[in-house]
Amino acid sequence: MRVTAACLLVAVVAVGVAGLVAVRLVAVTARTVTQDVLSQQADVVAAQLAETGGGLRGGGGMRRVVDVLAGQGVTVVVLTTRGARNAGLLAPVLEQAGVQRVLGGQPVSTQVVSGGVRYLVEARPAPVGGFALVRTSDTGPLGGGVVRRNLTVALLAGIAVAVVVGVVVGQLMARPLRRTATAARLLRSGRRDVRVPVGGPAEVSAVAGAVNELADALARSEERQRHFLLSVSHELRTPLTAVRGFAESLADGVVTGPDTADAGRVIVREAERLDRLVGDLMELARLEADDFRLDPVPVDLAALATDAAAVWAARCADAGVRFVLQAGPTRQVPADPRRLRQVVDGLAENALRVAPAGAPLVIATGGDAAVSWIQIRDGGPGLDPHDYPVVFERGVLHDRYRGRRPVGSGGVGLALVHGLVTRMGATIRASPAPEGGACFTVSFP
Asked: HSE on the CB side for 396, CA within 13 Å?
């Protein structure tokens, strides 16, 4: 209804303004035409008087001219040195118009407003004195009530057409908008199969297309969330099953003696796995909240890489992986040191998980005048080319590679890394590594 009312209001206002402008233009044109006609009549009368050499009251022919003019609503006033004869109520008008100037041989052509009425005055000198033709603007060839009535009828007809067109256009515009609003409400209620027909004006079609794209995006997002939750549930169930089984064995006395320590170690290992997964999920949830805090300070990438190397060199040695540190010159970047170390550790954890014995794991830093970076590279199996565009989406690589190579807990590690890097104002990119595996580069502008 609001769209229809708006269209109707616009149409009526447009027609009304156009009508008022037309009335004004017609009024001005009518006065101009009437003044021109009156001027021509005055010139004709002056020419006839010059030929006869007499006055307006001097002959029958001139009297007929006066009668004809009177029949057209024109008053003829004789001007002499003694004043205006037969002026009557027009005396103030003639005085305001200054018609006495014609006695000096100067014609007068003017408009005078007196008593709220506009008078048109044309005065000319004559062989004997002079004369003035006076009429109101409403009595001209385009004046009177007929023109005003015709204009009024035309204006009313235009408003009626505008009302009809406004209602029709408003309905045509409102119908697709109502469909779009209904679809939006259904999307809010949980429906994802709702689509809006794309049609109508370009703007309305754009809105419908945007709603359809939103529905598709919501459906894809919820599908990814379902897969992610299923994957996380599976990852949670595996260590929970191990913990529960060994705990029941200990409780029932099935495991005793020297086997007790092994059972305890399994429980501890699986509990740590659970702790890491739950911690990653909680960090990811906090990361998506608006109140997630960072404490950025100047961080030396080379120093951070050196500190991380002390830990990862030992872990790589235990796993039989060759660790390499390539720390460049000191480069200060604004970052949260704890979160940046979390990013480096997460990427190194992933690299160590897939790197075979003897393969390298590299932590390197460097940059140029425009950017500073820290890289984690490995000599593992790497990624397929079509994996790089989706490498940071939650659980995607986890689902693709589960059962084919070692994977993390739930597939949230890379999504968490991407979120942390983005929150620190940096960028992260995945690419093939010269060592044969994958390379992850965190860049600070």
From this structure: 17
